[in-house]
Amino acid sequence: MNQFQYARPSKPQAAIRAVAKDANAQFIAGGTNLVDLMKRGVMTPQKLVDINRLPLNKIERQNNGLRLGALALNSAVADDKLVRERQPLLVQALNAGASAQLRNMATVGGNMLQRTRCPYFYDTTMPCNKRAPGTGCGALEGINRMHAIFGFSDKCIAVHPSDMSVALVALDATVLVSGPQGDRRIPFADFHRLPGDTPQKDTNLERGELITAVDIPDAPFTRHVSYYKVRERASYAFALVSAAAALELDGNTIKAARLALGGVAHKPWRLTAAEQVLVGKPATEATFRQAAEVAMQGAKAFKYNEYKLKLAPNTLVQALKTATAA
Ligand code: SF4
């Protein structure tokens, strides 16, 4: 591992200043992804700004919804009474992620900022535009079975690995950030980026901007929910495909729907057109299949991930069936 400086400020503004003024500085919280990346030489920050002393770990009622502090642990959020009562979809998604040990270290903000698990990104002997812009994409003509079917570019076909973020984009969450220019709120759907020509940028955060919290509004579609994750083993594995479904039902009629897929794009993939298909329709498998067909419009596979073209709609239908039964 490269040598680096280490700072541990106790005030958010000091942390923001430290990262804003130094292009080689990086925030660190749980470190469950960043430390791995540093050990492998994939990321080589020259300064780590440890934010664990900042007062950002509360989980509370706020503005007709829940506010999750950026430093709240994934396990603490999943076990929190308020979250369990009000946002069971988020609980399901959190408990589907990583292992119990990792959830005890990983934070809300860190979960959102974790990097792709594309194997070429981790292998410093291979070309990767995300790790080293301009070197090419090893996955395009390589083993791309875990890669994107939506929203990719010829520069990068990686997927975002977070489960939690798939639930949060479906739940219309908002990200609160503080930075050198002040505070701002970013709709969760606009927080992560598609790769385009700049796959090295995963999010729309500016240098020095610190995630402080995530707001999840109360909504009538938070009772009938399901996070359905398909993976290669029962735990501690990233999604091949996952689906988040949240429904408001009036009897058997769907009044409102929120849908998103994971494991299919460079960002959690919200399915607004498919949501519209569901509204006003009976909650039947035939309706779910119609929505899944719309959800898959524009999908395109690479040599080794064609299976996702079938797996993704089937996963979405399964999530909708489970949500309806809930
Ligand atoms: Fe790198 Fe993205 Fe290509 Fe993977 S898919 S090798 S992360 S550029």
UniProtKB/TrEMBL annotation:
Pfam families: CO_deh_flav_C (PF03450), FAD_binding_5 (PF00941)
Protein name per its UniProtKB record: Xanthine dehydrogenase family protein subunit M
Keywords noted in UniProt: FAD, Flavoprotein
Organism of derivation: Hymenobacter ruricola
Database matches in InterPro entries: CO_DH_flav_C, CO_DH_flav_C_dom_sf, Diverse_Substr_Oxidored, FAD-bd_PCMH, FAD-bd_PCMH-like_sf, FAD-bd_PCMH_sub1, FAD-bd_PCMH_sub2, Mopterin_DH_FAD-bd
UniProt keyword Flavoprotein present: yes
FAD-binding PCMH-type domain sequence ranges: 1-221
